[in-house]
Amino acid sequence: MDIKLIVVRTQDIKILADFYSNFGLTFDYHKHGNSPFHYSATIGQTVLEIYPLTKSQDSPDKNLRLGFSIDNFENVISKLKNIGVNFSSDPVQTDFGYMTVIEDPDGRKIELYKK
After folding, report:
1. What residue ranges define each of the domains in the chain, with the CATH number in brackets?
2. Is the torsion defined by CA of 82, 12, 10, 30 positive or negative?
3. Is the pTM of this model over 0.85?
4. Which residues contact 27 (CB under 8 A, 6 or more apart)?
5. First-to-last CA distance in the chain?
6. What is the pLDDT of residues 31-77, one digit of tens each?
7. Residue 90 neighbours by CB under 8 Å, 6+ apart
8. How far is CA 11 from CA 8, 19, 28, 31, 114, in A?
9. What is the C-alpha separation between 78 and 63, in angstroms, rounded?
């Protein structure tokens, strides 16, 4: 089994796409069918899409937690600190690898791992 699709919903799709671009993701802005315009990036075989909130949502889901294994870990961490990203902790060695936890603009916890 593989994960093929992850959809994250937000109030400002451009801000969130720009944020995740800091990890090395490249997003396309498009729509298909009756869907709204959204951002889409491919990570291996998984598509990460950033959509606007649905009409029934008044705020993004902050319980979703994502983890990314990233190239140029130290450079990305330095860049994120320089732009004021909230870090839950400094990078640390764990049973799962060298990592840190940050918050995206919507307040979701994001795990970043050194590749």
Report:
1. 1-54 (3.10.180.10), 65-115 (3.10.180.10)
2. negative
3. yes
4. 17, 20, 21, 39, 40, 41, 50
5. 22
6. 999 999 999 999 999 999 999 999 999 999 999 999 999 999 999 99
7. 100
8. 10, 14, 18, 17, 29
9. 26
